[in-house]
Automatic annotation (TrEMBL):
Organism of provenance: Flavobacterium plantiphilum
Keywords from the UniProt entry: Membrane, Transmembrane, Transmembrane helix
Record's protein name: Integral membrane protein
Segments passing through the bilayer: 34-59, 86-108, 137-155, 161-184, 205-231
Taxonomic lineage of the native organism: Bacteria, Pseudomonadati, Bacteroidota, Flavobacteriia, Flavobacteriales
Top-level taxon of the source organism: Bacteria
Length: 252
């Protein structure tokens, strides 16, 4: 029997069968198993994050000053932001995304546990903050974020923002397998990027369609008193899991 890496190398060379309906149905069935639990975690986590943000604003900037800032529309116009502020904002958001990405991996792991009818807990979500996984997840997120932001910035500066948006979407599709490859196949950050690109290029339009459907499904939560978003968002993680499971699987 071939090892997992040998199997994946073969998929990169020869491609793989994949149908929209099969992957979507797997994602939806998986989503039904984690929706309530994962949605509740999103809701509680967001509430705690907002409370923490308010506390930090209170002691660093002052709530009154912040309220005055957001009440003036001109203060929120990006054209009025200083270069230092924009740079600090981009760096801060990139690092925050890198720090949060192990949680994204944890929700994919939850989807895997649900599919195998294994128990999952809150600790499952935080399991990938272990250094072995964290460093690879941090690095892969940093590389993807810098690449996407950099290309978008260049296209914006060149006066063709549409190409920047297209590039960002393309990067998202091409790197859809990076996190599952790290947590399920023990790939390094660079290996996962290279392998994800090679695999997704075999079925780019189908995978794009699946991700578009996943995002559209998540957006429907906005129309359910907004709070529904917390319970539709887990579908995105189920979709990432379903794509990896359908292409690579877990039988080796």
């Amino acid at each position: 029997m071939k090892s997992n890496r040998e199997y994946i190398e073969n998929l990169q060379k020869n491609g793989y069968p994949l149908t929209f309906e099969t992957v979507f149905n797997l994602a939806f069935e998986n989503y039904k198993k984690i929706a309530i639990y994962a949605g509740s975690l999103f809701l509680v986590g967001t509430a705690l994050f907002i409370i923490l943000a308010i506390i930090i604003l209170h002691y660093t900037y002052g709530l009154a000053n912040f309220q005055e800032l957001i009440q003036k529309p001109e203060n929120l116009d990006p054209k009025n932001f200083s270069d230092e502020f924009i740079t600090a904002y981009i760096i801060s958001m990139t690092l925050l995304g890198c720090m949060m990405h192990p949680l994204f991996a944890g929700f994919i792991k939850m989807a895997h546990c649900a599919q195998k009818d294994e128990e999952f807990h809150v600790s499952t979500i935080f399991g990938y903050y272990k250094w072995t996984y964290f460093k690879e997840l941090f690095l892969v997120t940093l590389i993807i974020s810098i690449s996407s932001t950099g290309i978008s910035f260049i296209m914006e500066a060149a006066g063709i923002p549409a190409l920047g948006m297209l590039a960002s979407v393309s990067i998202s599709v091409l790197t859809v397998l990076t996190v599952p490859l790290i947590i399920f196949s023990n790939y390094s950050a660079m290996e996962s990027i290279r392998t994800s690109i090679n695999l997704t290029l075999k079925q780019p339009l189908l995978l794009l369609g699946l991700l578009i459907m996943a995002y559209l499904f998540c957006i429907t939560g906005f129309f359910i008193f907004f709070i529904g978003l917390f319970f539709t968002l887990p579908f995105l993680y189920s979709m990432h899991y379903a794509i990896y499971s359908s292409i690579i699987g877990f039988n080796r």
